[in-house]
Design a protein that fits this description.
Number of domains: 1
Shape: elongated
Oligomer: single chain
CATH superfamily: LemA-like domain
Order of helices and strands: HHHHHHHH
Number of strands: 0
């Protein structure tokens, strides 16, 4: 009887310490991270087809293609395991590599506008639409990941579950950040005194 009472007391104590909640939220972070990786991989898988389609355009800027290919290689070199979210430095490298990929894709699409025969092809139009869809899915997946990490990190920092976090070594997880947050936070400067360019 005494043993049963101790088991019940231990169960009630553990249920209030947040241990089970840490397990649930950690699994939620892992699932959200998998969705992020899946969508980034989907975008990366489109790059070879995009490069092959663009290479067919006469005189297309080779430096833009090289930049995109190098960005894809940088992304592929990073092992995006679930443990990466527990290492802020590795997470920052992953985010920087994905940022380079986004930047290189944006430049390629901007340069492609100078080649109307390329942009008019069915293949290029389909790839552009697939890329736009991939970028939208990445945005949604990152949003879900941000929310999952927020819930986990709040639990890791609030009392009394922070005691459980310290006891079991649960640390806050890395989250996505904006590269140049100060520049984005600054309001745009508009000068109405200058005449519009014609």
């Amino acid at each position: 009887m005494r043993r049963l009472l101790l088991v019940v007391l231990a169960t009630l104590t553990l249920s209030g310490c947040g241990y089970n909640e840490f397990q649930r939220l950690d699994e939620g972070v892992k699932a959200a991270w998998s969705e992020v990786i899946n969508n980034y991989q989907r975008r990366a898988d489109l790059i070879p087809n995009l490069v092959a389609t663009v290479q067919g355009a006469a005189d297309f800027e080779k430096s833009t293609l090289v930049e995109l290919t190098n960005a894809r290689a940088s992304v592929s070199a990073i092992k995006a395991t679930p443990e990466l979210v527990n290492d802020p430095e590795a997470f920052a490298k992953f985010q920087a590599a994905q940022g380079q990929m986004t930047s290189a894709l944006s430049r390629l699409l901007a340069v492609a506008e100078n080649y109307p025969t390329l942009t008019a092809t069915k293949e290029f139009g389909e790839l552009r639409a697939e890329l736009a869809g991939a970028e939208n899915r990445i945005t949604v997946a990152r949003g879900r990941y941000i929310k999952a990490v927020e819930a986990y990190n709040v639990l890791a920092r609030q009392f009394p579950s922070n005691l459980t976090a310290m006891l079991f070594g649960y640390k806050t997880k890395a989250n996505f950040t904006v590269e140049n947050e100060k520049a984005i936070a600054a309001p745009p400067k508009v000068d109405f005194s200058k005449p519009a360019a014609k």
